[in-house]
Amino acid sequence: MDDIWTLVRWLHLLGVATWLGGMIFLGAVVVPVVRASGGVQASRDLITRVARRFGVIGGAAWFLILITGFGLLDHRGIKFSELTETDYGRRVLEKFVLLILLGVAVVAHSVIQGPRVRRAEEAGNEAEARRWKMIGGILDGLMLLMTLAALWLAASLVP
């Protein structure tokens, strides 16, 4: 039975590695290289395709983190009331809140910010496109900080 829970923990960590690794790879490698190597239209198209593809992988990782996290809590016998009454529980609750906020930020980035950049560029409205790109950069930064904060909280749970 311990092997099952080792697998669940491993899947949880795999989800985190996929989420964080993908986020860093996209921001530090893909976007800068693509922007430096092509025109606006070609860059936008390629970044959009890469982001959509990673959206599927990242979304699966997000759900994997959520599901395995709940499973691990249940396995440890953590009750809902303990999420506010113990130090361990509060840290887990903070991780959960960060995960939900990350999900909201990703949806805002994908459904609102990204399409608005595209529409502004297609309309030739450079100021509007710049503004929405700046908002996207802020969202990216916040998502990275929230992910790193959740990782810090996770590391603090281990004695």
Explain the overall architecture.
The longest helix is centred in the middle third of the chain and has 37 residues. This protein is mostly helical. 91% of the residues lie in helices and 0% in strands. The mean pLDDT is 93. It has one domain.
Give a short overview.
This protein has 159 residues and is mainly alpha-helical. The protein has helices spanning 2-37, 40-76, 82-85, 87-122, 126-157. The protein has one domain.
The class by helix and strand makeup works out as mainly alpha
- Share of helix, binned: over 70%
What is the end-to-end distance?
23 Å
What Rg, in angstroms, do the CA atoms define? 18 Å
Order of helices and strands: HHHHH
For the largest beta-sheet, the strand count, sense and barrel status come to: none
List the defining traits of the structure above.
159 residues; mainly alpha; elongated; 5 helices
Q: Topology of this protein?
A:
Blueprint: H1 2-37, H2 40-76, H3 82-85, H4 87-122, H5 126-157
